Design the sequence.
């Protein structure tokens, strides 16, 4: 490994504050601190601002590092790897740029987004007076930068990027799996498509056997309701051919013929009125108190915290739209505290919901994981003879349930919802046999999501990167 140099951040980089030149620009793209997170842009479309002279917007260019001055622990940073002539950024961003050829911008970005740097910047921010934590470039310019020669910088960046790319690929895979499960839930339990398929077939004069085929075609994705409506003759033959073709397509559907028949038979062929509007005949509307076996919470004082052990989860560890909680935390409790401090413990497949601050985030406890929860989370264990926790997760993650939660919020210093108010929400309750079939369908997708590969990769990067950046591990090809 080449000999490493050590300089201060302010000696190798600068915070550019050049205002954007709006001359000749009708509109440009504006990036605010809320548009980025952990090195990624959160959406494709950004605000367009008109070219008014004198607007306080910073110009950027390819290779710049955007790092939010506000609450640095929130990970609002990104590397600009594209030509940015038509982009302006908020003045709440530091626009950090190397001012020497000794340090590459990508290597500097890797340093500034490392856990060690993030923690140091957070300490600086917390020490400043003001309404919220904040840093300036001057306040962190003293930060010590250690760097090798350029070839070794490139190798270090390649190693870090390789791990980050794997993490992102896993995240995208998990997102796809989650969308599949959500779509299935919506088809069965929101739009009631298998039941509606039976109704359509019945209205065409079909007997019960053909009605079953209609539901099967919807369940396996061989046909849509619109296509079913359009069939004017040979209904039975058309349905059977579509189902056979779908089931014969390799890797297109995880269902076999017997499972398809069993599932279709569980859907009724009529809709009836209820407190929730039209629902399939024979399904019920119930409240939480009738299906919850146990609540798990931590309404006491904050437990003693350690730097390793059993993860203590807060609202931020329940990602939006993910069944899997983020177990990568800095707060843990030891075994003794876990056993004695908490009144009850979460088990596999229990559901957690955030009840204070950001309300209604929902995740499920992965198999084999010990988890402790902070005071802003509530755990639920359901009566298995009445409800599948997998069915309940997707019902609680749906629009109607979230709307009902919002309607019951208590607004004081910060928003919250009480357990007694959750119990007043009406829930759809199909037959348990159908819920269990849904669980069989989605459980393989959930098992793939709940594998800890993504978390493991993050931990590898957190452990490996400091060793690489200190020169403790060599990356030279010699």
Sequence:
């Amino acid at each position: 490994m080449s000999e490493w140099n050590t300089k201060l951040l302010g000696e190798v980089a600068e915070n550019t504050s050049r205002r954007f030149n709006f001359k000749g620009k009708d509109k440009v793209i504006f990036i605010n601190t809320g548009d980025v997170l952990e090195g990624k842009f959160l959406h494709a479309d950004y605000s367009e601002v008109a070219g008014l002279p004198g607007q306080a917007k910073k110009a950027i260019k390819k290779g710049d590092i955007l790092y939010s001055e506000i609450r640095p622990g929130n990970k609002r940073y990104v590397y600009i790897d594209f030509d940015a002539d038509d982009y302006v950024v908020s003045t709440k961003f530091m626009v950090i740029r190397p001012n020497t050829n000794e340090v590459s911008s990508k290597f500097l970005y890797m340093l500034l987004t490392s856990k060690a740097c993030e923690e140091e910047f957070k300490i600086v921010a917390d020490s400043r007076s003001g309404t919220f934590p904040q840093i300036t470039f001057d306040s962190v310019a003293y930060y010590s930068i250690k760097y090798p020669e350029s070839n070794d910088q490139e190798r270090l960046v390649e190693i870090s990027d390789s791990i980050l790319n794997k993490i992102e690929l896993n995240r995208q895979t998990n997102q796809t799996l989650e969308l599949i499960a959500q779509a299935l839930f919506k088809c069965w339990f929101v739009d009631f498509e298998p039941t509606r398929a039976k109704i359509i077939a019945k209205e065409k004069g079909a007997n019960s056997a053909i009605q079953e085929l209609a539901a099967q075609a919807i369940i396996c994705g061989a046909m849509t309701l619109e296509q079913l409506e359009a069939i004017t003759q040979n209904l039975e033959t058309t349905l059977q051919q579509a189902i056979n073709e779908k089931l014969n397509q390799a890797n297109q559907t995880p269902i076999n013929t017997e499972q398809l028949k069993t599932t279709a038979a569980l859907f009724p062929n009529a809709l009836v009125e209820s407190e929730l509007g039209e629902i399939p005949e024979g399904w019920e509307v119930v409240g939480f108190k009738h299906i919850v076996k146990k609540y798990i919470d931590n309404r006491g004082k904050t437990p003693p915290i350690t730097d390793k052990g059993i993860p203590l989860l807060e609202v931020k560890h329940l990602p939006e739209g993910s069944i899997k909680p983020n177990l990568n935390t800095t707060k843990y409790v030891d075994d003794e505290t876990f056993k004695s401090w908490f009144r009850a413990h979460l088990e596999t497949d229990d559901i957690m919901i955030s009840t204070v601050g950001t309300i209604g985030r929902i995740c499920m406890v992965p198999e084999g994981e010990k988890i402790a929860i902070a005071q802003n989370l509530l755990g639920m264990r359901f009566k298995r003879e009445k409800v599948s926790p997998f069915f309940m997760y997707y019902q609680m993650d749906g629009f109607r349930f979230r709307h009902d939660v919002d309607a019951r919020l208590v607004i004081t210093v910060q928003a919250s919802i009480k357990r007694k108010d959750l119990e007043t929400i009406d829930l759809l309750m199909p037959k348990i046999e159908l819920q269990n079939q849904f669980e069989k369908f989605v459980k393989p997708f959930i098992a793939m999501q709940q594998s800890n590969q993504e978390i493991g990769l993050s931990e590898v990067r957190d452990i490996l990167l400091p060793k690489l950046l200190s020169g403790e591990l060599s990356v030279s090809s010699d």
